[in-house]
């Protein structure tokens, strides 16, 4: 028995608390999660972990993973002047609730904007992917492109909706990462089970609620991680000059004080989460810095992830850390890219070619390296990688050299974790306006992720909380291997 375990056991004894009481159970995060998991019927899991990559602002689906040559063919013509004018009177516009979106807005009727980058077929599968994504495209035979996703919010509240399935006007709800954290037990009690990297989305668009658990309780929130071995977490190292034994005593006293308060306020989730965080922080002080310390990685790995180049170094470090986190048993790693303090850098209302060229260059090589590295290590089969953005961009031009927001059809891709590779599922029309084949609301992506982890979203219920039908989604059976 370690000195820490001894002090914990003696503390519980001194307080006269049995392990069946709420206060004692709240000391152990893994036990709390196990209690939840024991009430949920588990499916046979195909994946152990998820790496969730989110491009903030709305990446263009046409200039990434759903090229549309008709845009170039009919460039300069309005939609009404093309064979595709019927998209403006499509029944989808009438049947879907899209808030803050007017189908008569001028930007839809503007002249079609040609593709800003070439594309070609990649891999044995022949998936068509733009030349801005060569490293990801090199892994085409492991990619599942879901080209028929739609959402309700035509403004950047869609960033929150992408993670919760609910429109921002409805309020705040648990995110996909929090549901995974809630539904599954720990694989490594020395690390958080839901880790967040990169600057989150701005307050205008949901802020940190895009990785929070809301009514599930703060203990299921995502834990922010910095790529800094000296200080990866605000509470992951003792204060200067404080010995480990001294800090153990401090944590012990804090537990006693918090448990006294917890007995007085037994329904206070914040108190329970605070107690768990102290215990988890004590264990993480050695485990977490090691994750973001890359000294044991080869020079070839550093170069593979782009750590040797300024434009790819930051995101490359996050991708390498993501691999190291899932390698150590972290369940859900959420990585943001493109935060700007506002709508996001991928929001290409103008200058699309300039902005997307720069942004794709920052992330393409690191993501391609992540996929190749996971596969080479035999980890891709049990790690589900998901890439997405809150919506796509319009086929019409805006400000002469940009595209506006477009929620009616865009692409999300998945790889690994028991998902079929080398396929395109669903489709938008010839100009990328509507998802017209195998259409999927964003929570179908959530349901597919949960299914691959062995969870049925309908079993993830909380007493007193009624969930809407659209929150559950449906697993996309056609993409599951």
Q: State the CATH architecture of the largest domain.
A: 3-Layer(aba) Sandwich
Tally of distinct domains: 2
Helix content: 25-40%
CATH topology of the largest domain: Alkaline Phosphatase, subunit A
Largest β-sheet summary: 9 strands, mixed
What is the alpha-carbon Rg in Å? Answer: 23 Å
Question: N- to C-terminal separation?
Answer: 45 Å
| Number of beta-strand segments | 15
Strand content: 5-15%
What structural class results from the helix and strand content? alpha/beta
Uncertain stretches of 5 or more adjacent residues:
1-32, 100-107
Q: What overall form do the CA principal axes indicate?
A: globular
- Average pLDDT works out at 86
Alpha plus pi helix count: 16
Question: Which CATH class of the largest domain?
Answer: Alpha Beta
State the gist of this model.
The chain is of the alpha/beta class and 481 residues long. Helices cover 35% and strands 13% of the residues.
Protein described:
The structure is a single chain. The chain has 481 residues and is an alpha/beta fold. It has two domains: 1-39 and 238-291, no CATH class; 47-227 and 300-479, 3-Layer(aba) Sandwich (Alkaline Phosphatase, subunit A). The chain has helices spanning 3-15, 22-25, 29-38, 69-73, 91-95, 106-109, 134-137, 158-164, 176-183, 244-264, 269-291, 299-304, 310-327, 352-376, 442-452, 469-472; strands at 49-55, 119-122, 127-130, 143-150, 194-197, 223-224, 332-337, 383-389, 392-393, 405-406, 410-415, 423-425, 427-428, 435-437, 440-441. The strands form four sheets. Strands 1, 4, 5, 6, 7, 8, 11, 12 and 15 form a nine-stranded mixed β-sheet that branches. Strand 2 (119-122) and strand 3 (127-130) form a beta hairpin. Mean pLDDT is 86; it is low at 1-32 and 100-107.
